[in-house]
Amino acid sequence: MIDLHTHTTCSDGTDTPFALVKKALSAGITTLAITDHDSTAGWSDSISAIQPHFELVLGAEISCLTSDGISVHMLGLLFDGENNEMQQMLADSRDTRIPRMRKMVELLKADGIDIDLEDVYQAAPEGATVGRPHLADALVTKGIVGSRDEAFLELLNNESKYYVTHAAPTPVEAIRAIRKAGGVAVIAHPFASRRGQIITSSTFSDLVEAGLNGIEVHHRDQNAAEQENLIAIAHELKLVITGSSDYHGTGKLNGLAENTTHPAQWELLESQADARRVVRK
Ligand code: AMP
Ligand code: FE
Ligand code: FE
Ligand code: ZN
């Protein structure tokens, strides 16, 4: 079983990278990618947990904004973690998440919701990329909402008046950086319409020109029709098709390997990186 998109305590997941790899091993996963938001901080801890006959794919999920302001998530897999441009791009994104979170907290406070930036930091593990899920957890701790899900539904979703974006690379810039660092780029849940505005199918050709390698098709936030449309686009543009859980531990309902990638598709994707960078014991 191949699961190419998961999160840990280095962003908004609830398992440490070490614990996540152990869970993947017991679940019978043979290839696992760890893809924290805008961070590679979990890589070394995840490596220390691997066993023989298991492939670890190091990556990150990069938050992007199109020039029209649409939020896009780009999975970068198998890139060189020492690449300066890549690390700078990730660091810039993490940095702008701080003033962004401050703004969201101020907007909530201005509406009488009793929350402070300090509460959000309390909810985020040490060194984690700070995101809305931590704000959601802080709102739960304060008894303002009952769950992360409710927090997103009522206050934090992309259409909410409290939602603020942070500065981010465009999808084209992210793809170029990933490819320059030797990795492969897979656009994450592109048609997950319930998350907010989505890109149009015509955008894909620009992304392919920039070096896009694959499309995440099988993902719980995309219904059957959305997945069918993506499969057609992938075939037309000769892109790899992936499926994955987007596991976040107890932070979301997504179960490990609830969606997976076909071995032949993974083989094709891996062959497009500039070096064999899968980690094995
Ligand atoms: P941010 O990167 O701070 O904009 O937060 C986006 C993250 O919030 C996504 O990557 C998801 O992990 C999470 N998220 C989005 N919608 C929901 C939801 N309805 N329930 C829980 N987590 C969500
Ligand atoms: Fe997330
Ligand atoms: Fe995502
Ligand atoms: Zn994700």
From TrEMBL:
A matching Pfam family: PHP
UniProt xrefs under CDD domains: PHP_HisPPase_AMP
InterPro entries to which the protein is assigned, alphabetical: PHP_dom, PHP_domain, Pol/His_phosphatase_N, Pol/histidinol_Pase-like
Domain Polymerase/histidinol phosphatase N-terminal: 2-66
Gene3D superfamilies listed in its UniProt record: 1.10.150.650, Metal-dependent hydrolases (3.20.20.140)
Alphabetized SUPFAM superfamilies for the sequence: PHP domain-like
A GO MF term: 5'-3' RNA exonuclease activity
Name of the protein in its database record: Unannotated protein
